[in-house]
Amino acid sequence: MTPYRPAHGTPIGDLDTPCLLVDLEALEHNQRVVADTYRDTVCKMAPHAKNTKCPILAHMQFRAGGTDERVCCAKVSEAEVMVEGGIRNIMIANQIVTEDKIARLCAVAKRATIRVAIDDPRNLGALSQAARRNGVTIGVVVEVSTSARRAGVRWADPGGIEKGVALAKLARELPGIEFKGVMSHQTLTGKPDKETRFRDGKPFFQMCLDVKDAIEAVGIPVEVVSSGETFSYDIAATMPGVTEVEGGSYMLMSHGFDYMTEFRIAAKVLAAIISTPRPGVAIGDVGSRALALRVWPAIDGMPGVAVEAIHEEHIVLRMEGPTRLEVGDKLLLVSGQQDFMTDRWDQYIAVREGVVEVVWDILARGCYH
Question: Fewer CB atoms inside 10 Å of the end CB: C or N, the chain?
């Protein structure tokens, strides 16, 4: 079935619902913020494609500036889509372990410069063997575990930093492998102010830099220190030694990041009211099939309207303020976490000044492998 595809110039009010909108003015503003931040710095943005899942948006980020024309990906399948979309510099910010995925990684490495995260010598050996068989070179970065409690050498554990050094040494010895540096990923809870972000965010960068320093102390050069994300994009520019930020949320934004007031919400879901079954309650025509449920969406510009429940095809809204919704009314929902939401859609409908300007396919949706 061909997805609904509105014509250029269609007013927002005439769009079929539900649909995923991107406000081009907000999108371009967010790109300018990043471009201005990294214009005169060694550190650059490597946009994380898991958030937008669209090569066209990655190319827009490159043209805006402040990047090194590299994207981060979460999966080999995302990297494959980005390379098909003309991107030639990729970092996969996860470990690639199984035989079939390593073979696909080598295929990507024949068409693009590739980097991948490592934290295990056996995996590093498997990457080397596959790279040698396929006649390619795979760049590697040692992942450092800071706050996310997932993959990576544990900075805080006894011998954690030494494990990172040992991996760097091994990477330098193995054929088909090019040691590039270190990386980390971290999160902050809540909605901290700028002072709190800087206070709590700088130590995460320093953990990664500590591993870099230890590797350099044994005579191995470290070219890349890839760390940070949207909440710490500005912190990275103040940390000597950090070369790259893996930011993604800043492009489309979500209400989970609304404390980053320098960015604007660009992605919103347009929905319509299909029923008002009782006073103070309205039913919208969008549900969990199209929204991220890890963090519930917020209603844009309608004080007193809140989400009460979400079902597969419908959303239940409670009206407790001055706003009253009637059947046929349309409203905009802002995702709580936009990468989850984006994966539920086939296309972005990009609008400017209330009318459709272009439609972009979300080519990397569903890339789980």
Answer: N
Instruction: Name the 3-class secondary structure at 282.
Output: strand
Is the Cβ–Cβ distance between 336 and 298 less than 8 Å? yes
Question: How far is 270 from 266, CA to CA, in rounded Å?
Answer: 12
Those residues whose C-beta lies under 8 Å from the C-beta of residue 150, and which sit 6 or more positions away, are none
pLDDT in tens, the chain (369 residues): 567 899 999 999 999 999 999 999 999 999 999 999 999 999 999 999 999 999 999 999 999 999 989 999 999 999 999 999 999 999 999 999 999 999 999 999 999 999 999 999 999 999 999 999 999 999 999 999 987 677 889 887 888 999 999 999 999 999 999 999 999 998 888 899 999 999 999 999 999 999 999 999 999 999 999 999 999 999 999 999 999 999 999 999 999 899 999 999 999 999 999 999 999 999 999 999 898 777 889 999 999 999 999 999 999 999 997 888 999 999 999 998 888 889 999 999 999 999 999 999 999 999 988
Calculate ∠ Cα 202-208-50, nearest 5°.
Answer: 90
Query: Is 366 part of a structural domain of the chain?
Result: no
Rounded Cα distance between 30 and 20, Å, is 18
pTM: 0.94
Q: CA 117 → CA 39, 92, 137, distances in Å? A: 27, 7, 14
Give yes or no: residues 202 and 271 share one domain.
no
Q: Give the separation between CA 253 and CA 217, rounded to whole angstroms.
A: 40
Q: Confirm whether 62 is domain-assigned.
A: yes
Provide the domain limits for residue 338: 12-21+262-361
Instruction: Provide, for the chain, the percentages of residues in helix, strand and coil under a 3-state DSSP scheme, each rounded to the nearest 5.
Output: 35, 25, 40
Radius of gyration of the chain (CA): 22
Residue 87 backbone dihedrals phi, psi, to 5 degrees: -95, 135
Tell whether the torsion through CA atoms of 317, 320, 321 and 323 is positive or negative.
positive
27: helix, coil or strand?
helix
Taking the C-alpha atoms of residue 34 and residue 46, their distance in angstroms, rounded to an integer, is 11
Name the residue among 132, 117, 96 with its Cα closest to residue 246: 117
Among 152, 145, 157, residue whose Cα is nearest residue 167? 152
- 252, 287, 318: which is the final residue of a domain? 252
